[in-house]
Amino acid sequence: MSADPAACGALLLCRSDPAAVGPAAQLLCIGASPARAESRAWGRMLLAQAGPEWSVLVPEGRPWLDGAEQVDRVARGWASALAVATPWPTLALWWDEGGTGFTLASGFRRTVGYVWLKNGTPVGEEEALSSFVGRLGLDPVLDTQALEALTRPDSDADGRARMLGLLAVLGRAGLTLPAGLAPGLHSDELRSAAAALPDVEQVQWTGWREVVSAELDVVERGRLGAWMRGPRARALGGLQLAAGLPAVLYGVRRRSSGWAVAGAVLLLNGALGLAYDTVRARD
Predict the structure, then answer these.
(1) What is the span of the domain harbouring residue 275?
(2) 96 has which bridge partners?
(3) How far is the C-alpha of 22 from the C-alpha of 177, rounded, in Å?
(4) How far is 28 from 143, CA to CA, in rounded Å?
(5) What is the DSSP letter of 197?
(6) Do both 32 and 58 map to the same domain?
(7) 188/98 same-domain check
(8) Number of domains in the chain
(9) Three-state secondary-structure class, residue 267
(10) pLDDT tens-digit series, residues 72-130
(11) How far apart are CA 255 and CA 58, in angstroms?
């Protein structure tokens, strides 16, 4: 049974600045027909700065508002799609009438996540939080202790309070959510608050040429730049193609836009990597 759309919302937090996140986020639009702008409405997002080294993406939320999918599945798919396309981690925060949770995606590593029920009851493994600390470069002592406190029973902390505790830990790593963006709000409220921000950007599809150019520039300037050419680049491209096709087929079979987008991004990046290596080899 689907969750009540009125209680659903999600945010995507990226450990990078908006200039790098914007081009990569356009890839989330490829999960819909390029011929009809309205069919891509589920992929429209607003982008804003969320601290010196952080950005926040505020999705429109059509999949869960229309009752087509659950918010946690969509958020997980989007985070995975962004993570495999970029050199920085992506954290998806989500909430619905049943509780709150997060999914952290980083490259091709297995995603890690945690869930709290609406009353704050923790449902997850503490090992996920240790991976969370390591992948985001948090303090292995102080931040780990703070996160472990979120896994213990607490009758005074509901799901929203748990999420606020998580955000407090990330705040020590430089995350500062803009005013009006808070866990528990309806997707429309989040969009309205984000739209009122002074430096907010609308993530829009600008065409394959611009997206391809921007995506290559992001990757080449990042930690994955060394993987752009040579045997490692060809191996990585082949791996992305091999992983992307099953993900797309699974998404189509299950009618899951999150999996379909993640698979499509894998296929795109694999093809781009192989093509880029071939073109550069001819230079």
Answers:
(1) 207-282
(2) 99
(3) 17
(4) 31
(5) S
(6) yes
(7) yes
(8) 2
(9) helix
(10) 988 988 898 888 767 789 999 999 999 999 999 988 788 999 999 999 999 988 788 88
(11) 23
